[in-house]
Specification:
Order of helices and strands: HHHHHHHH
Helix content: over 70%
Mean pLDDT: 77
Shape: elongated
Number of strands: 0
Number of helices: 8
Largest sheet: none
Radius of gyration: 29 Å
Length: 192
Amino acid sequence: MRGVLLVLLAYGVYAFNGSRNSLRQVFDEYLPLLRPVTDRLGIDLESAGPVRLIEKALNAQHSTLLMVAAGVLAYGVLELVEAVGLWMMKRWGEYVAVVGTSVFIPLEVYELAEQVTWLRAVAFVLNVFAVVYLLWTKRLFGIRGGREAFEAEREGLSLLEVERAAAGAERERLRRRPGRSAPQTGSPRRRS
């Protein structure tokens, strides 16, 4: 879903770029209508985050918006490729997941260098933790024995599950047999 939404967002940014003048006209026309309400609430409309973001987008250069659309599209395609790989249970899907998760670490480092906030720090730590967790548990890039160790671990777990299921089925078969009772476990009771 994320990949599809990102591809649609990339298209929206691209379409926005083509209709920026008409959107600027709508923004300039309707923003003054909100001023009486925001003044009563004590909100400075010019410094509000969403208004500043819209202003930046409306004043952005054509090439900047095309680069943003291309970046969002590339990340959306990466998310779709990751989804297909993980859905098909392919090892390369796990590598794509690590790449997709680590893509934003440089941006988070830049934001932390610009201004340290607890939210930025927590986002950075969580993202680094997610990358390290994926690398460690999936044994990617040769970590902890790499692919061979991962396959052996997975095969070992699969055999253990098969053995447990077979033992459970055997117990159930013996329990349902007419005239025979299932073998009892534990020590027999002493009579006093």
